[in-house]
Every structure is written in structure tokens, then in C-alpha cells.
Structure prediction request, 372 residues.
Amino acid sequence: MRRFSWAGAAVVRLVAVAGPAALALLAALYIGRPSTVFLATGIALTVAILACDAWIIAGRHWFTGVAALTSQIAFLLFLGSYSASPLPAPSPLSDSLPPASPPAAMAIYALPTGVNHRTAAFAYRGGSPWDKRDSVMTAVLVRHPQGDLLIDTGAGRTLQAQLKQAPVLFRLGTDLAQSQPAADQLDASGYDRKQLRYILLTHGHWDHVSGVPDFPGVPVLVTRAERRFIDEDGWATAAARSLNPTVFEEYGFEGGPYLGFTQSHDLYGDGSIVIVPAPGHTPGSIVIFITLPSGARYAFVGDLVWQLEGLLEREGRPWFEAQMIGEDPVAIQQSLLQMSAIAIRYPQMTIVPSHDPRGYASIPIWSRSVAR
Ligand SMILES: [Zn+2]
Ligand SMILES: [Zn+2]
Prediction:
């Protein structure tokens, strides 16, 4: 009996001191994947921790009490890192819209390939953990007489094999529902693949590269900085690293300033597709500005933000998510503020964060369009 109570006391002390770390992990998992299993386990653990606290106070175990208090304060600080913390307003942009002469036949289409079920708290500081958000994986087909291009590729045919490279914790905190890969959607409609000139990556993370192997022989445009990052990063760029290195085609930013960004690359020389460097999320991340014949303007901002509020409310990603990605905090703030200044000056421009379904609302869905 005496041995048992000694062991029981040890468990109580352990729950009070180490429980908050497990609770932080459960909170992070729930924010990335709002499953009731994580929620119920978290509530049960919270009750257990409070009960252990009561035992510690009643027994005046002050040494354990201080340790438990310290770890519980650390937990509250962790939760606090998800609270709102808006960046200061950017200096106003005075640039007028750069000229563009998009050819009459130019058009864009969305190819949705899958959805991650996440929460607003996962995407930006100040987002609620009770606000469930679809984090979409969508490729965009840009049709242009000089050659079509795909902006990112969504979830590809080999997604399941690629996901095996991800750490167990990431897979545990991710609930991905895949739909038809972009290559299958294009093939089913009778799309002539010879018209596809390039794949243009917003950046090299797995969820943007996943479908590249489904388009053998199509050159993949990346910046030099992103190419280096792909070679040096961990599992998140493993899918890109496993591609034949000869598919990558590097481009530079020989063009002048564009909407406050210091450099640019005009892909076809007509101003309809202009790329600017927007580092931070990854070193070679870009923003792609598209102007359609109708005059409609789009900014495909990749993962600069995961949901529009990140840009409109100038909220960066939460600390934990930023750490997992290994973002450059200074660079991403700069890119975010620059893009925020554009959004303020040109509210008519449609901002498309890769994973926010609202960004694609005005873009026709390829499989529902008669376009061939
Ligand atoms: Zn990314
Ligand atoms: Zn992404």
C-alpha cells in the first residue's frame, strides 16, 4: 500500500508538471486538424492537471508546486502566441497600375485537387481555433498564346507516397481529402498537353509541387534562391528534390520595380504575367501578378499568407507554425506589408493565397468550363 501511494504521488506530480507540455501539443494538433479526439483528450487532461494541482496545494508540496506553476505559465504563453498581433500599417503606395497588354485569348482556370481541414488559428495570429477553415490545394491553368502555364500543381497522383516522407506529428495533425489530380482533370477534358509550356511554382513546398511528376517533360520555373532552398531544406521539399534536376529552369529578375517590389520578371513580355520576389515563407517565394483581357487583375501570393485575413489584418503566422516552417521573420514581414499596401491601394485586385478558397471565387473551374 505504501509503495502504491508513492507511485501514485509520482504520477500526480508528473501530470502536474509535464501535463501542460502534452496539452500544448494537443492544442497545436487540434488547431491543425480540428478533431474531436484531440479536443476530448485535451479537456480530460486539463481536468486531470487541475485535480493534481489541488492535491499539490492540499499536501503543501511546494517544490512540485513551483515546477507545475512554471510549466503551466509556459503553456499559457504558448496559447498567447496565437493571439492577434497586427503589424503596423504599411506606408501608402502611390504607384499607378503597371501597363499590360494581355492577348485576347488569355484566360485562367482553377483546378481544385484537395482540401486540408484546418482552423483559422492555424493560418494567422488572432484566428479562432473554433473557426474551421478549408485549406485548399488548387492548381491554376493560365492559357496564353505564347504557351500555357500551371501555377503550382496541387495534390498529384503520387501524393500518398510523398506524404510518407512527412513526420508522424505532421501527418497526425493533417486531415487531407484529395480529389482528382490536375493532370487527370486536364486529360479527361481532352486538353492537349503540348500547349503546356511551363509549371510556375510559387515556392518549392510539397503541397505545391506534388503534381509536378504527373507532367513529365514540362519545365518547372523556379528562382535561384528557391532552387537552393529545395536542395537544402528538409522533408517539406523532399518531393521537389526527388524530381529530375533537369526539369528546373531558373529565371532572374531583370525587370524594374513593380508595384513597390524592387524587381520583376515579365514572363511573356506583354505585362500579362509578372513575377516579383516575395521572400520569407521560403527564400525564393514569389508573387505572380496576372492581368486578363477584361482588365481583371490577380495577385497569386502563394503561401505569403494561408488565409486572406493574414494580409488584410496584417497578421503573421502563429509562432509554432512559423517555427515548423522555418520562416524568415524579417523577410516575411516585409513581403506581407508590401502586398498589404497593394491590397489597400487596389481593392479591385483579387488576392489569391494558395490555400484560401475565397481567392478562387471569381476563377472558372476547369472541369466545369467548356474550354478545350
Ligand atoms: Zn508553403
Ligand atoms: Zn502551401
